[in-house]
Amino acid sequence: MLKLNALIAGSTGYIGVQLIKLLVKHKNVNIRYLCGNTSVGKKISFYEKSLASKNLPKIVKFNKKFLKEVDIIFTALPNGEAQEISNHLLKKNTLIDLAADFRLKKSSEYLKWYKQKHKAISNIKKSIYALPEIIGKKIKDFKIIGCPGCYPTSVLLPLIPLVKSNSINVKNIIIDSKSGYSGAGRSVHKKYQKKNLYESLSAYGLGFHRHNSEIDQELKKYIKSNVEFTFTPHLTPMFRGILSTIYVDLKSSFSVTKIEKILKQFYKKSKFVKILKNDTLISTNDVINTNNCFISVFKTKYKNKIIILSAIDNLIKGGAGQAIQNMNLKFGFKNDEGFK
């Protein structure tokens, strides 16, 4: 049985810890290195008590010499750091990045939205934007895998099939997304300490959130015209989960029933995307601690307008779980390995 030696860089963040919790259950993975900067010498159980019984290495500072000993590198690091690691990859290595370093296909777009120059421009062409239900087996041809952001995952899963089927008007899409505060990382507690994080709802990044670039890039792959959408993210007083509410106008020959059929047909072989019966209310509680995305379509008082609800766990389907899905696709493992 093929067993991969893995290195996790950024192992102590919310995403990193969630990744470890899933990987310790994966039959085809041996965690060789856990890397961090301020946590060197500590055990991962310091950050997650449930991992105390697992035989895991102590946290060390990343060194490129480790690449000789591992097959797969997961990076859950601040933006820019996976780029540097990518410049040292060996032929045997596969890099799966959970940050934004290889999501955008133009370095100029990365500079525009992330306000920093890309440090591995030549590697962008060697990478793939990997939303697993969309990209499928194409992932096998790439050694650098960019995992989608959590918000775009919740948005693109329902919208891509509809854009591909030419069933909606792409000039007036409104996306209202609400996320648990874990999506902002451990530093969120300091950043929002004066804003009553645990009892208030906050909108942020209005009109210019970085994930606009990602959503725009991916939707444009399926149409010749420009896409016009408004995306507004919110931080909510819950730890995890994302609920996206998407408002779209239908093309004249389409109905709510047809939209449901399009989505069900598109995801009929999907293990993790669940298309619910029309007008079924969903919440983040339905998907917490799973790799699922629940999608439901609603009619409105206007015949040509519909509302789509999409719910995911930002730390799993929007992060660590999606990374493992991509690894499973890349190496031909069972689609649900690591999730049982």
Distance between the termini: 18 Å
Instruction: Estimate nothing, just give the exact number of structural domains.
Output: 2
Architecture per CATH nomenclature, i.e. the level-2 architecture of the largest domain: 2-Layer Sandwich
Text of the CATH class of the largest domain: Alpha Beta
Could you give the order of the helices and strands?
Answer: EHEEEHEHHEHEHEHEHEEHEEEH
Strand content: 15-25%
Uncertain runs are none
Give a structural overview.
It is a single chain. This protein has 340 residues and is of the alpha/beta class. It is built from ten helices and 14 strands. The longest helix is centred in the last third of the chain and has 16 residues, at 316-331.
Please name the defining characteristics of this protein.
single chain; 340 residues; alpha/beta; Rossmann fold; Dihydrodipicolinate Reductase, domain 2; 7-stranded parallel beta sheet; 7-stranded mixed beta sheet; 10 helices
Secondary structure layout:
Elements: E1 4-9, H1 14-23, E2 29-35, E3 59-60, E4 72-75, H2 81-86, E5 94-97, H3 107-114, H4 121-124, E6 127-129, H5 132-135, E7 144-146, H6 150-164, E8 168-180, H7 188-191, E9 202-203, H8 211-219, E10 229-236, E11 242-250, H9 256-266, E12 273-275, E13 293-299, E14 305-312, H10 316-331
Parallel strand pairs: 1-2, 1-4, 2-3, 4-5, 5-7, 6-7, 8-10, 12-13
Antiparallel strand pairs: 8-11, 9-10, 11-14, 13-14
Helix pairs in contact: 1-10, 6-8
